[in-house]
């Protein structure tokens, strides 16, 4: 199977639509980590993503009859644009079914390549179901994003280019993982020609379907999938990709939101390219690999797999980069509520940059301050800072890894309610579409009162919302039944220390 896949990669038709992309050196990263770090620039494809390779190669295998009827796909992102371009190059009708929450920039890009766009449903599953209905009705050929051997072979041409462009030693190649099409094709080619090169998959920690499959020994469906890295937000690894790469992938690394944001910044500083979060995923994994193994003097290659991001999302990414580099500590510190306390606190932290300071009067004796403080990367300096504050008599709560604190509390003003009451607090991910809030409110019982609400638009398909509710005692045990019926992802935050310290 491995040899047959490599032959398919060598015979793949991709360059009628795709281009051979360069490998860019990353001099700043290389000096910082004492390794030669190289970035394969798939963001330079005509659709700013590698996806055009697999889409075009799959279409190159269509019969004349299939081409005459047209092709269809369900996609909210890069596969849609890749297929639209491939169809335009071949003069074939293309229909793309996208969820209604798809950002307008992606809808416009697909239409710009000449494809017909149908917006259906609030999530990918509804769009995929409608696409299959249209296949039955019109005889379109469905072009899958990853679970197809010709798609896999098209994506594998990325590895073919890397080994041709860099003939010297390569210690490891880091590849982003969503459904597995890219890593399956690349792993097959690399291991067949250069088995000494490590192939390392990188996944977002909240959509790690490959890691789950390898641990279980079979494909599994994740209960929930994070949406921050939309390009790899897949609940189940592809069947064909997994069968190919099961014995070819040396390691799988997972990274979090902050680490991806930091990698976006790293790519920009070395190449001036603005990648999407999933595009920077493999670099985030490369950095984590160096930190965990202490690798030095090696040649390490990662893939900038795409650059299709909304401009208004960059603000949120920028906010999280310092945390991703572990250069900022977010702390809740209790200081005495009296004149001179803040000055004394600043004297205690020494010559460190205060990056953020939030405070509102709430108590005559104590003040809870939300403070960001610059620290050295690695985590040791942050622990030393916390230890110094505790030694000086300050109660400290470390919120650096607290999502509620980073997404909501740091942006909330107004302090605590004047009168005492009981509320339950939940954090939700709302689809970014008209009517999403009304759908949420409609499912709540009429006697529930909204006591807290915070929302910020991050330029993504989903918005992050914090909601406080006054719930009658009789409904307390059934709260989450109502939320399950709505279908939005949620987390209970009533006991979160960030909420207790600043909002309760």
Index terms:
504 residues, alpha/beta, Rossmann fold, Biosynthetic Threonine Deaminase, domain 3, six-stranded mixed β-sheet, four-stranded parallel β-sheet, 20 helices, 18 strands, globular
Topology of this protein?
Elements: H1 2-11, E1 23-25, H2 27-33, E2 36-41, H3 51-59, H4 64-69, E3 71-74, H5 78-90, E4 94-98, H6 104-112, E5 116-119, H7 124-138, E6 141-142, H8 149-165, E7 172-176, H9 181-193, E8 198-204, H10 209-216, H11 239-245, E9 251-255, H12 257-271, H13 281-293, E10 299-304, H14 314-324, E11 328-336, H15 341-349, E12 354-358, E13 366-374, H16 380-391, E14 396-398, H17 403-407, E15 424-431, H18 436-442, E16 449-456, E17 462-470, H19 479-486, E18 489-492, H20 497-502
Parallel strand pairs: 2-10, 3-4, 3-6, 4-5, 7-8, 7-10, 8-9
Antiparallel strand pairs: 1-2, 11-13, 11-14, 12-13, 15-17, 15-18, 16-17
Description:
The chain is α/β, with parallel strands linked by helices and 504 residues long. It folds into 4 domains: 2-47 and 148-322, Rossmann fold, CATH 3.40.50.1100; 51-142, Rossmann fold, CATH 3.40.50; 326-401, Biosynthetic Threonine Deaminase, Domain 3 (Biosynthetic Threonine Deaminase, domain 3); 410-502, Biosynthetic Threonine Deaminase, Domain 3 (Biosynthetic Threonine Deaminase, domain 3, 3-Layer(aba) Sandwich). Helices cover 40% and strands 20% of the residues. The chain has 20 helices and 18 strands. The chain has helices spanning 2-11, 27-33, 51-59, 64-69, 78-90, 104-112, 124-138, 149-165, 181-193, 209-216, 239-245, 257-271, 281-293, 314-324, 341-349, 380-391, 403-407, 436-442, 479-486, 497-502; strands spanning 23-25, 36-41, 71-74, 94-98, 116-119, 141-142, 172-176, 198-204, 251-255, 299-304, 328-336, 354-358, 366-374, 396-398, 424-431, 449-456, 462-470, 489-492. The strands form 4 sheets. Strands 1-2-10-7-8-9 form a 6-stranded mixed sheet, with helices on both faces. A 4-stranded parallel sheet has the order 5-4-3-6, with helices on both faces. The chain has a 4-stranded antiparallel sheet with strand order 12-13-11-14. α9 links the parallel β7 and β8 (198-204). α5 (78-90) runs parallel beside α6, α9 runs parallel beside α11 and α12 packs across α13 (281-293). It is globular, with a radius of gyration of 25 Å. The termini are far apart. Its cofactor is pyridoxal 5'-phosphate. This is L-threonine dehydratase. Pathway: Amino-acid biosynthesis; L-isoleucine biosynthesis; 2-oxobutanoate from L-threonine: step 1/1. Keywords: Amino-acid biosynthesis, Branched-chain amino acid biosynthesis, Isoleucine biosynthesis, Lyase, Pyridoxal phosphate, Repeat. Residues 329-401, 424-495 form the ACT-like domain.
């Amino acid at each position: 199977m491995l040899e047959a896949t490599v032959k398919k990669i060598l015979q793949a038709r991709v360059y009628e639509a795709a281009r051979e992309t360069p490998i860019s050196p990353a001099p700043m990263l290389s000096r910082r980590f004492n390794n030669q770090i190289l970035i394969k620039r798939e963001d330079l494809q005509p659709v700013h993503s590698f996806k055009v390779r697999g889409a075009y190669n799959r279409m190159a295998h269509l019969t004349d009859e299939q081409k005459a009827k047209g092709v269809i796909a369900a996609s909210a992102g890069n596969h849609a644009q890749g297929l639209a371009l491939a169809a335009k190059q071949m003069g074939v009708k293309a229909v793309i079914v996208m969820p209604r929450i798809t950002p307008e920039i992606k809808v416009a890009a697909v239409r710009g390549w000449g494809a017909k766009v149908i917006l259906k449903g609030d999530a990918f599953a509804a769009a995929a179901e409608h696409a299959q209905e249209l296949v039955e009705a019109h005889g379109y050929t469905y072009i899958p994003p990853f679970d197809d051997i010709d798609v896999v072979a098209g994506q594998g041409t990325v590895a073919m280019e890397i080994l041709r462009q860099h003939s010297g030693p390569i210690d490891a190649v880091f590849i982003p993982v969503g459904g597995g099409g890219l890593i399956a094709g690349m792993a097959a080619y690399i291991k067949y020609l250069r088995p000494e090169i490590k192939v390392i998959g990188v996944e977002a920690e909240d959509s790690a379907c490959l890691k789950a499959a390898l641990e279980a020994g079979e494909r599994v469906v994740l209960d929930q999938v994070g949406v921050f890295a939309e390009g790899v937000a897949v609940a189940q690894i592809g069947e064909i990709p997994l069968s190919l790469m099961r014995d070819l992938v040396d390691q799988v690394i997972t990274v979090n939101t902050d680490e991806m944001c930091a990698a976006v910044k790293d790519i920009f500083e070395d190449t001036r390219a603005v990648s999407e979060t999933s595009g920077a995923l493999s670099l985030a994994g490369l950095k984590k690999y160096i930190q965990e193994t202490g690798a030095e003097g090696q040649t390490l290659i990662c893939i900038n797999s795409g650059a299709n991001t909304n401009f208004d999302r960059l603000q949120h990414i920028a906010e999280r980069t310092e945390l991703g580099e572990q250069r900022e500590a977010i702390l809740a510190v209790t200081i005495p509520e009296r004149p001179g306390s803040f000055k004394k606190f600043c004297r205690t932290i020494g010559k460190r940059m205060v990056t953020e300071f939030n405070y509102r009067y709430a108590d005559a004796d104590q003040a809870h301050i939300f403070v960001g403080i610059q620290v050295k990367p690695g985590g040791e300096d942050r622990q030393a800072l916390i230890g110094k504050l505790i030694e000086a008599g300050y109660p400290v709560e470390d919120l650096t890894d607290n999502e509620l604190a980073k997404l909501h509390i740091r942006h909330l003003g107004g302090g605590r309610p004047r009168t005492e009451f009981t509320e339950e607090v939940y954090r939700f991910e709302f689809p970014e579409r008209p009517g999403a809030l009304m759908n949420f409110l409609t499912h709540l019982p009429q006697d529930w009162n909204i006591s807290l609400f915070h929302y910020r638009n991050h330029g993504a398909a989903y918005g992050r919302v914090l909601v406080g509710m006054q719930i009658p005692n009789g409904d307390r045990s059934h709260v989450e039944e109502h939320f399950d019926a709505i279908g939005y992802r949620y987390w209970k935050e009533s006991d979160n220390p960030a909420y207790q310290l600043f909002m309760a």
